[in-house]
Amino acid sequence: ACAAGAGxxxxxxxGGGEGSAGGLLEAVNVRRTLLGRRAERExxxxxxxxxESPMGVQARLERAxxxxxxxxxxxxxxxxxxxxxxxxxxxxxxxxxxxMEKIYGG
Length: 106
Description:
Layout: H1 21-47, E1 55-62, E2 65-73, E3 80-88, H2 92-104
């Protein structure tokens, strides 16, 4: 089975080891990546999509706020539906649900 974001990589590299600024930066980037992937996977789950689903999802974390946007291509028409949502970064699934509601309605 395939997972959304499985090939994604959003990480800043820095020198240094455990306890250094580089180690702290790595821990922050791992958290940012995981929150983004959780949101992206939830969008895919809510769509009932597979790896071949024609769509793009972008998650951006800004302090404690998660910004999520998507472009989803309808298979029947090929026309894209787009939307964006913003919410608390500690609940990426809720931000994904809000995004899908904006795109497809309640």
